Every structure is written in C-alpha cells, then in structure tokens.
Amino acid sequence: MSKLLVIAFDATDAATSFGFAHALGLPFDVLQLTGLSVPSGAGTVTLANLGSIPPADGLAKALQPLVAGYSHIASPSSMGSKDVLAYLAGLLDTGMVTDAIGVVSPTEFKRPIYAGAMTATIKVNCDPIIITFRPGNFGKDAASANGNESTTSLNVTSQATILSESSKGSARPDLSQAAIVVSGGRPLKDAATFESVIGGFADALGAAVGATRAAVDAGIAANDLQVGQTGKVVAPNLYIAAGISGSTQHMAGIKDSKLIVAINTDTNAPIFDAADLGLVGDLFTVLPELQRELKQ
Amino acid sequence: MKLLVPIKRVVDPYAKVRPLADGSGVDTTGAKFEINPFDEIAVEEAVRLKEKGIATEIVVVSVGGPQCEDQLRKALAIGADRAILIETDAVLDSPAVAALLSDVALAEAPGLILMGKQATDDDCNQVGQMLAAKLGWPQATFAAKVEITGNSAQVTREIDSGEQVVALPLPAVITTDLRLNEPRYVALPGIIKARSKPLEKRPATSVQSPKTSVSAVELPPTRPPGRRVGSVQELAAAIKERGAI
Questions:
Q1: Residues carrying CATH 3.40.50.620, chain A
Q2: Which CATH number fits the domain that encloses residue B130?
C-alpha cells in the first residue's frame, strides 16, 4: 500500500509538511525526531524524543526499521535532512529526489537543476522513494487530524561524535520560515554595520536576516544566514535585497518569494531585472526611511 | 594515508544552459566542461593534506565517458597522483554512481574519501552520503574545515543553524562546502607534469539500472516584469498595496 512517512526534524518541520503531504495525495504519518508535537491535531504523529539530531550514520541506521512499509519517506529540505535522508537512501539502496518543488504523480516530481535555471521532472522507479521537498512550494495546509500520537525511543549509536555546536541563539525568526526577509550584501562593509543596519531594520519589522555569499565570505555575516543555491532557499511574502547585485546563485534562493524588493545604488544591477519593485538608492539612507514609512 | 577523491565532469557553472527544444533534457551543445567546483575544492583539500605530510597518495576517480579524462587530467595538474576512469556511456543516477564508487573504494581502501557536497548540474547532494552508507562509514557533509590526527578526522561542518564540529573515525566520507578552501590556480608546469601521471581506464562492470530518471526539462515560470519606483514613499506604498506587510 502506498503511504508517506514524513520525517520531521522538529515541530516546525512537522507543521510545514502538510502541504506536501496533501499534494502527494497519499495517507501519511509523521515521525518527529525532536521536540513536542505540533499543537494543532496532526495526523498520526510519533515522537522520537531525541534531545538533538545525532550524526547521520547512526540516525539513518536507527530510522531504517521505522521506515519499513512506507512507499514514500520525506522531509522538508534542509542541510540536516539531506545529510540524513541520503544516507538512509544509501542504506536502503533506493533512489532519492532532492528539493522537490512539485508533485506530478506519486512517482513523478519536479525539482530545480542548474541552480534553479531549469526545472526537471524526475521519474522514480524504486520503492521506497526518499524525498526532500521545499515547503514554500506547497502551501501551508493545516493537518488533516485524526489525533493519534505515540512516542518511540530511538536508540542511536553513531560512529561520528559531535564535539561542539555553535548556535546562533537569535531571537529573530527562522530564515527559511519567515514571512519577511531582509538581506544585505558586501556594501554593508563589516559585521557591526551589517548587524546594526540589516539587523536593526529586520527587528523593527519582525523579519529574518539573510546575506549574500559574498557578505558571508567576507566575514560580514554568519554562514547560516547565506541565502542562495548553496545556502538557504527562502520563500517569504516580502524579500528585501539591500545592496545585493543579484548573482544567479543568490537569485536561485529567492525566486519563490512573493514580492522581491531591490535597493541598490547601481542602476544596472541584475537584481532589478528580477525584482518586483526596485529603487535606485543608497541602502544606508533608504532603509531607515523605509522603516519609518512601513511602520506608519 | 591514501585519499580517494571522486570528481564529476559538469557543464561550466557560469555558462548559460537551456532545455533541449523538445524538452527531453538539457542542451549542452558547445558548452565548456569543468570539474564540478565542489569536487575541485575536495581535490585542493586533498593536495593540501599531502603537502602537510598527512596524505601519502591522492587517487582521483570519475565515472562516465572518455571525455572525463579532461577533468581527471586537471585534477592531476592540481596535484593528485593517479587517476581512474570508470568508463560507461550509461545514464547514471546517484545510487548507480555510489555503487560504482563503492567498488573503487573497496579495491583502493583509502583512509578518507573527499568529494563535493553536490554537483552544480543536477544539484542532487546525494552521492557522498549514499557512498558512505554503502561502505558503512561515518560521514561529515558540508565541511568547512578538515583536520586529520592519526586515525581520526575533526571536521567543522556547516549546519542549518551555524556550525558543528564532529570527530570521525577513519575511514570516512567528507563532502566539501564552499568555504573549505579556494582551489589554486594551476600553472603550465603542473599541466605538463599531469600528462605523464598514470590514468587508468576500466570499463564499468555492472551498472545498476537507474532508480530515478529525468523525463522532462523546462524553464521555470518567469516572474512578471517588475517596476522601478522613484522614492522611498512610493516604495513603501507599493509594498503595502501588495499586502506584503
């Protein structure tokens, strides 16, 4: 029988999975690895009660018996899910679809290739099918509740050991889930300027902060803020690009945003071709003014 | 310690590519090909480990047609010692590539496999993990820093919320992210020297039938053209009018 198992790394993952599950059109269960369950009645949810996500080799082995019997195993796309699910696909000797953005049928999916320059339709001929999907492309459907909830304990033994982890400890919304994202590039000069100008604007609007690869490489912004093909893919209602020229790899990460606003001093910057609204101007004067105007 | 570095031949990531007119695939006519940039970072890292006296031999391997020799020669020019080309003209998906690479890994018995986190053509991000799973080895994906001490690797990896440091017993698979290093420029003497380095071609013995295949390629929907606004007030009004805030 065809059935989907959503592997949610946390409660947010679980909450953003229903749109994909409904698009797939199969009955589904949720296995949530960490955290408490989503307060709204989710489908059949099993909580694995892990304190944190263990290294992939051990976690994938521990998941193997739990995924037996499912035709589809899917997670929202993240570095974490790609790490673990591809290892699981290797253990199961099965095929995988990374970054699904559309469901054609339960065995056919659309996904971006060449940094989003093209969309490929992937035909899958294996059982089970492992999938990571971009929740932004599937809408925020509510759960179809049947209210079953259970817990299981996962016994994870990994060869790899986690020695330390730097957590951003930010009170700001999560970049990949935020309704508003404001991103900055190299013109922000240094980390302190970036934090005060981009961070300050973001906090005033309750927005998440993003950055270009160039800004991250220059040490202006933290690596987990990178938006683009090799960073986070975002799909907010409003994306504000401040001092960003608009490289192909950056655009690949923002093109599903509902409204893209570009602010740049260079009237020829490629970002203006992709933006819905463009203003030629200096971000250092535009952002504070825009903040005042938007708050009015 | 022997290092194995799998590399993929990909269309130059800066080239503009389009779907074939019939939408059956990607039109690569006339395109320039390169080592997948993430794999090139892996080759560079391997060479640095050899320069530090940690690695003793670097073996690069590629799977595909005879034209992959160009990319293997480039890797040899960067500083790899020996190359293997597993020749096949079959269309390969990630599980098939991982299976072929796992055979090579078993035969070569490297202490470490270094490879790109994903290829810039299909952006799959799968083969490294599948290979580690097939071999039963631990892995560290998205590596930003690699240190080898004795029989273990300490890897700083990029994660969704920042960075994580993991220790891996070797052998292991490490996949490279952008910030691990900046590959060196290869000068002419390196290219000439690479011509005389060993490159062994073997036919792929058994190729798995693909579990996933591309049935169509299209351009993504284009956004309607945007408009320029003349002032911050106009911009704020337009944002509000669109209900984006």
A1: 4-151
A2: 3.40.50.620
Interface check A261 vs B, CB under 8 A: yes
Does residue A145 have a pLDDT over 90? no
Model pLDDT for residues A59-93, shown as the tens digit of each residue: 999 999 999 999 999 999 999 999 999 999 999 99
> Using 50, 70 and 90 to split pLDDT, how confident is the model at B128?
very high
Q: Which of A33-37, A276-280, A292-296 has the highest mean pLDDT?
A: A276-280
CB-count exposure of residue B187 (10 Å: 0-12, 13-18, 19+): exposed
Contact between chains at A217 and B131 (C-beta distance less than 8 A): no
Whether the CB of A196 is below 8 Å from some CB of chain B: the reply is: no
d(CA B60, CA B76): 8
Tell me if A112 and B220 make a contact (CB, 8 A cut-off). yes
| Structural domain range at position B153 | 2-241
Tell me which residues of chain B, numbers 169 to 198, contact chain A at a CB-CB cutoff of 8 Å.
Answer: 169, 172, 177-179
* Domain A180-295, classified CATH 3.40.50.1220, yes or no: yes
CB atoms within 10 A of CB B68: 22
Residues in CB range of B53: below 8 A, 6 or more apart: none
Which among B38, B125, B149, B179 is the top mutation candidate for probing chain A, defined by the most A β-carbons within 10 Å of its own β-carbon? B125
What would the pLDDT profile of B48-105 be if each residue is shown by its tens digit?
Answer: 999 999 999 999 999 999 999 999 999 999 999 999 999 999 999 999 999 999 999 9
A146 band by pLDDT with thresholds 50, 70 and 90? low
Cα–Cα distance list, B213 to A74, A96, A282, B181 (Å): 19, 11, 47, 33
Distance, in angstroms, between A63 CA and closest chain B CA? 13
- The partner residue sitting opposite A90, judged by closest CB among B16, B133, B218, is B133
| CATH 3.40.50.2300 correct for A4-151 | no
Question: What pairing do the DSSP bridges indicate for beta strands B9-11 and A129-133?
Answer: unpaired
